[in-house]
Design a protein that fits this description.
Two copies of one chain form a homodimer.
Chain A lengths: L4 E2 L9 E3 L23 H4 L5 H7 L5 E3 L2 H7 L7 E3 L1 H7 L4 E6 L10 H13 L4 E6 L3 H12 L3 E7 H6 L1 H9 L3 E5 L5 H9 L7 H13 L5 E3 L6 H20 L6 E5 L4 H17 L4 E7 L4 H4 L1 E6 L8 E6 L21 H8 L4 E5 L1 H15 L5 H20 L4 E6 L7 H8 L10 H10 L6
Parallel strand pairs in A: 5-15, 6-7, 6-9, 7-8, 10-11, 10-15, 11-14
Antiparallel strand pairs in A: 1-4, 2-3, 4-5, 12-13
Chain lengths: ~450, ~450
C-alpha cells in the first residue's frame, strides 16, 4: 500500500535548526552599515532585535538547538504531515512522484509560525513585551499575533494597504489573537505620513510597511522590538525545521527529491524546506534541482540586480546583499501579497548567484489555474503564494509526462488560501490581471540603489 | 514529558464504523411514511438515496467495514490529531484535563468530510453522477463539494440565505471545488418559489434548503440523488471514525473521558465523537457525562417536543422521531448556521430521552468569548458551532477549579472559523445579538407537528 500521509512520530521531531552559513560555497556577504559601508556590529542591531536573534544572525554553527519553550509550541502543530500527492499525480497523468510538506495545518495557516514563535520567545526572555511588524498577505501578521498571544506580549501589525483592503478577515483573525492592525502606510509613523502625502493612492508595499514597523520600534525607547517575517538569516534558520522533518519523512518511505520547489517572497519558506537538502548538495555533491518561484510582477531573483540595497523603502535597515528591484519599488497589486517584496534573503541570493539553486517567474493566472487543479485533486485550497510553487510543480510533472522521467518532486505547501477567496473569485470571473514587470522599471531601480564597492 | 499532540499511526486507522443501533436501551423508532404512518420500506427511500446508504440506515450490525475507496480518501487527512489542551488548562487555572479531537485539519475544515466521502462513494458505485444538498454555515456544502470533486460527480448546493450573505467566501470555496451554489430559498424549485412568494425577506433555514435539495433530486428522474449532512443514521455512523480514533489515542496516553462534549445541530459531530464511548456506557455501565450543546435560539434537545416530525419544512421527508421545534420553525439569524435546525437526529433524541446523554443551551456571546479564550491559548480560531462546545468545556473546567475535581474532558473541535470572521467582527464590536427562543413559539410548534399515535 502506497503511503499518502507520512507522519513523523512527535517524539522524533528534530530539536535543532540547520544553519547553512558554514556550508556556503562563498563567504557570507555581511550586512553593511548604510553610512560607513562597513559590516554592521551586533550592537548596531540591538535597537531592533534581542541578543538571542542577533547571535543567530551571524552564527557560524551548523546546528542550533531549539529552546524547550519553542519546542513546546511547535508540538501544538508539528511535526506537520508530508503528503504524497497521488491524486494530483493521477489527475496530471504524470510518472513523477509528487510530495508536499503541509505547513498549512499550523494554527496560523502557514509556515510563518515556525519563526514567529522563536522570535517572540527570544524577545520575551530579553524582557521585551511588545513587538512591531509588517505583513503583506497577512500570513506573517497572523503568525506573530498568535506567538505574541502565547507569550503574553503586545503586537502591532502594519498591514500593506492592498491586502488590508482585499482581505478584511485576515485583519479580524489577527485581532482575535489580540493584535493591533493598521493599514500601511499609516498616519502613526513619520514615514507613513510622508508616503501618504506623496502618494495618497498608493497600494502600499512590504518595503513601506517594514519602514513603519521599524520606526515604531526604534522610537519606543527600548520598550518595543521589531520582528521580521522573512529575509534575515535567523528567520530562514527557524524555518529549517520544515526541511529537517521532511528529510526524515522522505527517508521513512525510502524517497529522496530530485527537485525541490517553493515560492519566494523574502525566501523563508523555500529556504526552510530546501536548506537541509541543499546541505547534501553542498557537502556531498548530491544532484538536486532547487527551484524558487516568484511572480512575474515582482521578479527579484530572475531579473533583479545583484547588489547591496536596503531591506525597506525608508532606508532604515542595514544594506543587505541581494537581488533587488530597488528599495523604492512598489509592485503591482497582485494577490500573492506575500511575494510583493523588492528584495530577497541574502542567503538565497548567494545560492542562486552560485548556481546551487535557480528561480523562475510566473504570471498569476496560470498559478490560480494550477491551484484549482490541486484543490480538486488533493482537497486543500492553496494560498496565492503557494499557488506559484504549485504552478511549477505541475509544469515539472508534465515535463516528466513528456519525457517519461520518474522524478521525485518535493514542494512546500506553505499555506492555505482560506483568506484569499476574493482572489479566487477574481480568477473565476476572469478579472485577474497579469503583470510582467517592464524592463524600464528595473533599469530605473539602479538609480536608487546605494553605490557600494563590491 | 506531557504529550500534547497525540497522533495515531496511519496504519492503525480504524477500518470500520460503529453502529449504535443494536446497543440502544430501547428499540429504534423507525421513520414513518407521512401518509400511512407505517414504517417506511427501503424502497420508499430509493428515490433519494443509493442502496448502500439505505442498507446502513437500518442496519442491525454493530460493526460496518469502511470501503477501501473511502479509506483512501480518509488517508488524505486522517487519523486527525488528538490534542491535550494544556495551554487552555493553564489559562483557565483548572485541574481538569482537556482533550480535543481536531477535525478542523480536514481539507473541508470540519468533520463533515467523513460522511461526504462515504456518501459520494456509495452514490458513485450505484451509478449516480450528481448530488444535491443543503448547507447552513457552509461546512457541509464544502465537504460534499470536495467529495464530489474526488469522485468526479456534479454537486448542487442550496445554501441558507443568511449564511450565503454572511459568508460569501464559503460560496467561493465550494465553487473552487466545482460545485454550483444557490441561495435558498431559490427560484429553481417550486418550494423555494413558494417560500419566496410568502416570505420574501426570509433568512432561510436548513429545513427549507433541505426541501429544495430533495425536490431537485426527486424530480430529476433518477439522474440525481440527495445527500444529507447530518440527522440520518448513516451520517452519524460515518462520523464514528472520530470517536473510534479518539478512543485509541486516549488509550495510548492512558486516558479516558469523564465528560464528552460536542455541539449539536443535527447531531452528527457530537454523535461521531461520543457513540464509541457511549458503547462503553451502554454495554458496561461505564460512567460518562455526555453533553450536547445547542444554541438558546434553537434549543431542540433542551426545549423541543419529543415527537414524530418532518425533517424538512416542505414535508417531503419521512416522519422522524426526534426533539423538534416544528418543521416550519425558522431560527433567528445566529452565526452558528450549522446549529440552526428545527430537529435532531433520532439516535441522539433517543439517547437524551433515555438519559444516556444530556443537553444544554447557550447564548452566542458567551460562546464567542470562550472561543477567543481558546484561540489565544491553543492557536486555532473555532467555528461558531464549535464555540458552543467550547463554552461548555470551559464551564465544566471552571467547575473543576471550584471543586478541585480532576475530571478528564474530551470534546470535538468540529471545525475552524476561517470563514466566520464576520461573526468575530460582530462579537468584538459588540453587535452580536443574543436570542432565547420564546415559549410561545415552542407552544405554537405543536400545531404543525403531525399527529402520530406513539
Amino acid at each position: 500500500m502506497t503511503q499518502y500521509n507520512i507522519l513523523l512520530d512527535p517524539s522524533k521531531m528534530p530539536d535543532a535548526w540547520y544553519n547553512i552559513i558554514p556550508d556556503l560555497p562563498v563567504p557570507f556577504p555581511p550586512p553593511l552599515h548604510p553610512a560607513t559601508h562597513q559590516p554592521v556590529n551586533p550592537s548596531d542591531l540591538a535597537v531592533l532585535f534581542p541578543p538571542g536573534l542577533i547571535e543567530q544572525e551571524a552564527s557560524g554553527q551548523s546546528v542550533i538547538s531549539i529552546p524547550g519553550e519553542v519546542m513546546d509550541v511547535y508540538r501544538l502543530y508539528r511535526p506537520t504531515p508530508l503528503r504524497r500527492a497521488v491524486r494530483l499525480e493521477k489527475a496530471l497523468g504524470t510518472p513523477a512522484k509528487i510530495y508536499y510538506k503541509n505547513e498549512s495545518v499550523s494554527p496560523s495557516g502557514s509556515h510563518k509560525l515556525n519563526t514567529a514563535v522563536a522570535q517572540a520567545y527570544y524577545n520575551k526572555v530579553a524582557g521585551i513585551n511588545e513587538l512591531t511588524t509588517e505583513t503583506g498577505a497577512g500570513q506573517w501578521g497572523t503568525a506573530l499575533s498568535i506567538a505574541c498571544a502565547f507569550f503574553k506580549m503586545k503586537c502591532t501589525v502594519y498591514m500593506v494597504r492592498v491586502s488590508y483592503e482585499q482581505k478584511p478577515y485576515r485583519r479580524s483573525v489577527m485581532q482575535t489573537y489580540g493584535a493591533r492592525v493598521l493599514s500601511s502606510p499609516s498616519k502613526e509613523t513619520e514615514f507613513g505620513k510622508k508616503i501618504l502625502a506623496e502618494q495618497p493612492d498608493t497600494t502600499g508595499s512590504l518595503g513601506i510597511a517594514i519602514s513603519e514597523a521599524i520606526e515604531d520600534a526604534a522610537k519606543s525607547g527600548g520598550a518595543k522590538k521589531y520582528s521580521l517575517g522573512s529575509v534575515l538569516n535567523h528567520v530562514l534558520l527557524h524555518q529549517t525545521i520544515i526541511g529537517e522533518e521532511a528529510k526524515m519523512q522522505m527517508e521513512s518511505v525510502g524517497a529522496y527529491p530530485d527537485v525541490v520547489i517553493g515560492c519566494c517572497g523574502g525566501g523563508s519558506n523555500f529556504a526552510g524546506l530546501s536548506f537541509p537538502f541543499a546541505k547534501d548538495k553542498l557537502r556531498q555533491g548530491r544532484k538536486i534541482d532547487f527551484i524558487g518561484v516568484e511572480p512575474a510582477a515582482c521578479p527579484t531573483l530572475t531579473r533583479g540586480l545583484y547588489a547591496y540595497d536596503f531591506g525597506d523603502t525608508g532606508m532604515m535597515t542595514p544594506l543587505l546583499k541581494q537581488y533587488t528591484l530597488g528599495h523604492n519599488f512598489i509592485p503591482s497589486g497582485i494577490h500573492a501579497g506575500g511575494l510583493r517584496y523588492h528584495g530577497i534573503a541574502t542567503l538565497l541570493a548567494v545560492l542562486v548567484r552560485e548556481k546551487v539553486m535557480r528561480a523562475v517567474a510566473c504570471l498569476q493566472t496560470p498559478c490560480f489555474e494550477a491551484a484549482v487543479t490541486f484543490a480538486r485533486a488533493e482537497g486543500i485550497v492553496p494560498a496565492p503564494e503557494t499557488a506559484h510553487a504549485i504552478r511549477v510543480v505541475v509544469d515539472e510533472a508534465l515535463k516528466c509526462k513528456e519525457t517519461g522521467e520518474k522524478k521525485t518532486i518535493l514542494f512546500n505547501f506553505s499555506g492555505h488560501g482560506h483568506f484569499d477567496m476574493g482572489a479566487y473569485d477574481a480568477y473565476f470571473s476572469g478579472k485577474l490581471e497579469d503583470y510582467v514587470l517592464e524592463q524600464s522599471v528595473i533599469d530605473a531601480a539602479e538609480e536608487c540603489i546605494p553605490k557600494v564597492a563590491n
